[in-house]
Write a structure and sequence with these properties.
about 200 residues, alpha+beta, Trna Endonuclease, Chain: A, domain 1, 6-stranded mixed sheet, 5 helices, 12 strands
């Protein structure tokens, strides 16, 4: 039993789904949103989560909203821009740039993405129009071009995702920041059963 890798087609981009600018306060690397109307609007669009009765945006969500100029972020009355937020997030997460690039790409293509299951730079990704109605269909996890990954660990992650009933998708980030997706599917060969299916990916 081996796996083949099928390149997913890129889908057309669209404008941000947040109409008015959101206001938040930076707490460590997360954004606290206090306004109830803003909370409801963000939650309906698939942003943020409630932690101990407070509504927070994840770091990659904050970076995306800063990037599309839909977030006014402050700390101690000082406004935080995208670059400052990125530097702050790196202190807590070395993979935040990878997460941001994947999240930005998914969002601009119309997909809602939430935190994954702890496989690294991974996201639960919902089919368009199904957020809040059905469970996430995909688990997308990122690989940066030129970065070495252990094939055994990668295979184990794919197996675990498949057992969850999700479709595993590899997001490869090229040096220019472009994201290319590879969908993993099972194929049974009569011979050469030990052949690696990940060889078509070039880093």
């Amino acid at each position: 039993m081996v796996r083949s890798i099928i390149l997913l087609n890129h889908l057309p981009e669209y404008v941000s789904d947040i109409e008015s600018k959101v206001e938040g306060v930076l707490v460590k690397d997360q954004t606290l949103i206090s306004d109830k109307n803003m909370q409801n609007n963000l939650e309906q669009k698939g942003y943020g989560e409630i932690i101990k009765k407070n509504f927070f945006l994840k770091p990659f969500e904050s970076l995306y909203l800063l990037y599309v100029d839909k977030l006014k972020l402050t700390r101690a009355s000082q406004q935080i821009n995208f670059d400052s937020m990125m530097q702050e997030c790196i202190k807590f997460d070395n993979d935040i740039l990878t997460k941001f690039l994947i999240y930005r790409d998914l969002r601009t293509k119309g997909y809602i993405a939430k935190d994954g299951f702890g496989f690294g730079s991974d996201f639960r990704v919902y089919e368009r129009g199904q957020f809040g109605e059905k469970a996430a269909k995909y688990v997308v996890f990122g690989l940066s071009e030129g970065k070495r990954e252990k094939m055994g660990l990668l295979q184990k992650q794919i197996e675990q995702i498949t057992k969850m009933g999700k479709e595993p998708v590899i997001a490869v980030i090229e040096r220019r920041g472009e994201v290319i997706y590879y969908k993993i599917s099972r194929i049974k060969f009569l011979e050469n059963k030990d052949q690696s299916a990940l060889s078509p990916i070039e880093f």
